[in-house]
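Repro:
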Amino acid sequence: MLLDIDINKKEYNKITKILKQYSIIAESIEKIKSVYKIKYNDKNYCLKKLKHGNKKILKILSFIEYLKSNSFENMVSFVSVREGKEYIKTKNSIYYMTEWIDGRNCNINDIEELKKAALLLSDFHIKSKGFFSKELKIENTFKNYTEEFKKGKQDILRFKKLIENKKIKTIFDIEYYEAIDKVLKYVDLSIEMLIKSKYTDLLRKAKIERDICHNSFYCKNIIVDETMKMYIIDVDNFSYDIYIKDIAGFIRKIMYKRVYGWDFNVAKEIIYAYSNINSLSKEEYELLFSLIMFPYKFLKLGRKRYYKNKRWDEDKYLRKLRGTLKFIDNQEKFAEKFIMFYELNE
């Protein structure tokens, strides 16, 4: 048997014991990030471990079954244990196995693939809507973004005061401080657009219709096979939420890539692909704008530095800050074009 050097003897013994319950004698075991790639009879399988109780796996199984009943075919299939179960429970963990999709991650540098991924996300949102289980509690992650954004603004203003009161300022302090006023404009713009969107009405609608968010829809969780079919993986953290959060997070992550640098035309194409299936109202465009523009990375970095005192060296802090701010001027142009194109000033 071929064995990954990252797997120790104790781990290997545990995995082989699990595999016996699938009547599998592995030809090779390879650990890739948090999963095991198992080769058996010239086919590959994915074995995954959960640290939570069996309610978590039952929730995932039930959700995937619901998606497939709604003709969503871009998910991997579970492999049953020989007793017919679809998972194995040990003392501290749950293991489950799926087919292994031979392919690669969605290419973030390929705009055509990103558009296809947006189309896939849109289909996922439509097909997952309404999922419900009497037996299982489905987490909801609905937020009061108005309050969250206002708190974020207060924190940034506190960071400004903290830096002003420091007798000795680091390079990080100076560069963070110099960016604050511009960043606060984006915060205010996000809050203003959030209020315009009638967010509470959108929230109420999402709760009634039981909208679902993937919560980790990024290129690393999209597999493209040799036929160019896309698969969504890692649905472990889905929840009830406003689906705009997914597409906003997807676009925001893309915009920070050097190849795009907050190019509105790229975002526009992705949004167009998404809305081809799941059309958006004006209020949803306003919410989308708000969630894309809010400076999460800048705020998070400030909290790590000035509240949590995270022990990073100065160079790491500066790399993070400069990476966050490298397209700050482009963001202003992005906001102007977004508002104009979707007529959000009316």
